[in-house]
Structure prediction request, 977 residues.
Amino acid sequence: MTVGAASISRPVRERASRGLWRDAGRRLLRNGPAIVGLVCILIFVVGALLAPVLSSYDPSVGKLVDRMKPPSPAHLMGTDLLGRDEFARVLYGARLSLQLGTISVVFGLFFGIVIGAAAGGLGGKVDALLMRIVDVLLAIPGILLAIGIVAWLGRGQIQIMLAVGVSYTPIFARLLRGSLLALREADFVLAGRSIGASRLRLLVRHMLPNALTPLIVQATLALATAIIDVAGLGFLGLGPGDPRRTSSSSRRPPSSSAPSASTSWATGCARPWTRG
Amino acid sequence: MLKYIVRRLIGAIPVLIGLSIILFLFVRLLPGDPAIAILGQHATPALILQVHQSLGLDLPIWVQYIDYVGGLLHGDFGASFINGRPVLEDFLLRFPATIELTVAALIFAVGLGIPLGRLAARHPNGWIDGIVTVISLFGISVPIFVLGYTMVFIFAVQLHWLPATSQIDARLQLPLVTNFVVIDAILAGRPDALVDALKHLVLPAIALGSIPFAIITRITRASVLDVTNEDYVRTARAKGLTEKRVDSRHIMRNAWLPVTTIIGLEVGGLLGGAVITETVFSWNGVGSWVVDAIQNHDYFVVQSSILIFALIFLVVNLVVDIGYAFLNPRIRYA
Amino acid sequence: MALLEVEGLLVRFRTHDGTVYAVNGVSFQVDEGETLGLVGESGCGKSVTSLALMRLLPKPAGRVEGGHVRLDGTELLDLSEAEMRDLRGRELAMIFQDPMTSLNPVLTIQEQMVETIRAHTELTAAQATARAVELLGTVGIPRPETRLKAFPHEFSGGMRQRVMIAMALALHPRLLIADEPTTALDVTIQAQVLELLRALTAEARTAVILITHDLGVVAGMTRRINVMYAGYIVETAPTAELFAHPSHPYTVGLLHSIPRLDAPEGEPLIPIEGTPPDQRHAPVGCPFAPRCAWRLPACWTTNPPLEPLVPGTPVVLTGDRATHRVACLNLPTAEEAEAGMPLRDGFVAAPAPGSVVDELATAEVPA
Prediction:
């Protein structure tokens, strides 16, 4: 019998895989909307990181003489009603948004992984108890939970990040626990147990790396909403260093409007990118 | 089916208990002393002790909890530190406004979201789909307050089409019976008040409903697309049924399922978002009340509002779960 | 005139990644009451052909780009969607491979059967329901009146397929297309369902196109068989004749791939080398050439048409006396078909023109 020969028609151009990251990069570059989102995010992040370089103005200091000026070469986005440079406020606001949003998600992931791993890894009574607590936390809608926690802990950057982080914890915990429960019956876990691996080692070395995937996806999506949530808290006057409101009848637009504007940019860019 | 409902109800009890404990602890474990908050500058040790006794803060904590739960069951949710009135009373006064806003937002989100999602699914990757995608992206990305103020700026300040704040023009002098402005306008037989009230609802409802609208649109689109590619839709077509029938009985009946679940979850988001929306539009509901209460350390108000919101959320999800079991026969017997 | 006449059917799928040439000029006919088997491996175009006949190709990618399909003289490809819809279920019916997913999970069997009946007749709901009960009884579902109210997930796989058959035959269609009706079922149930199908269609004189990759299934059920490969019909013959004298190298390969209980011990299984072709490219030459042990240099460039096995025989398209036709330039002899490999001295399958394999091709012809 002869060897089966290749078809004589035009061969399909398949490139060999050259490593996980390069494959991912190639897939990203082929996706139009993803590139747009990526560019947006890069502009945003670079702007935030290089804020002191890109703008010489102090975002919180303004000369009343300069108030409400339209955009000009001196003030690229004009000034606000206290004479502060808007462009600087947008840049520094972007910084703040990114910082607070990212760290909130990190907090949420931390608590979520600890709780989820304990519940999924230990099972039994621990699992039941932890999940009841998670259920209770889930019963309170996200923003309200964050508001409640800020009310409890007081104002401040750390408090906000903790509050928003904790409001995401139940979701992460649930997700991780679910993956771990499914993995417990996986063959490679049984194999590990049969050669005497300890539960901790199985959990950390074998199960967690596999179970983290849905969490990573959820965390990237959460990053976008965390930025919005943090902005929302700021808007309500619960943000770091906001002036105290004394009366309930007068509600003026908050002075932290610049971070809010950059917030919209941030989340608008984050969405297509995380989807792509 | 009945067993399913009973099981769900029983399952909700530990959550309620846990919720009450957490919220109870929320107030008790607060930094700072509520007595000082009340007394302000007049605080002396003797007066503080008096306030503690009158608030029952000197009793052992588990006694306080029993009192608290007992009070809850009797409708005693504590009193406001600021004006001394029972929390429940003020809550019931302001709650209808929040409900009106939330329901309006939900109607907007579902009423516009589902048809748009279906439309996008009918011509996937076409220009209609593109526009719908952009709109829903916009809805998710823009924070409620940014959207709210922008709309106010455009529609109220510049164009004068719609009002900027409140539920109704005070000059109309509508007598409030139920505190549901729309219903009261109907009851009083005042079409002018009704129209005015509805106009006041438009912008806040859109602002609040923007996120659920976006999500519902996306989910509906995805769900309809998934179902359209299922084998049983092909069978239905092979039987020679009209496209309308295939669409309504086969596609939509199955596509509804994930959408209803999402709607239940989004109600929670609506309750939270109401807080922000009411602030933006100076809406006299529970949301703005809670924000003020937090500023003023009026903790019973905060605690009770969160408790009731959570309760509503639980009930809504219960109803959605039961409705889902009704729509999806496969899980009725699980 | 035959009940169904298919001529030169061309089906392509236009996608972002290119065009898939699914069906490349298929022609056949089916008489009233005749059961035709359509055999081939996955991807050879048999399901796509049947979907094309019903005009149920997935839109917008799937398109019929040429050919004719005539049912009782009416050109199906020219009909409007509304006219086609009228025919579906009533004159033309189809049952699908996976009964698990082919029934709507949220509707009862009653709702699904009654809607079919009422879509094409004037019966009232009560009459349609009565008819549905009757049909369920015919296909062997016990206590049909109660079972009507059940949901699809409450039935077993075999029962579900019976329900599908009942629905398909409800309005006495002239032609039934059965796309791998038993592939998803257990072997014991397969026999039951096939027997049911045979009995019902024989009684009603329904023509059947039975699509499968399982030669065992067609052996007992069909009068004629079309063997398909890469969107072409490569051989067609009455069933008994095909099994007795398989002629196309692909058919030969198929029959030799089946392990047999009565084969002498130690006799090797002879698989067909290579993999099915990538149908994203317009076909050049005989589609089976890359895998054929009998190929000549001409096979790479010429696609042979279907011609009678015995040259010069008048062509009869349907019935027990249909002409045995093969599309091949270098037919295996009877002995070679028996052995499953070329037996000619020094014969080497022609290597692909201009490819590196030239050097690697060696002929190992066992004595």
Observations:
- The first helix of chain C runs from residue 46 to 54.
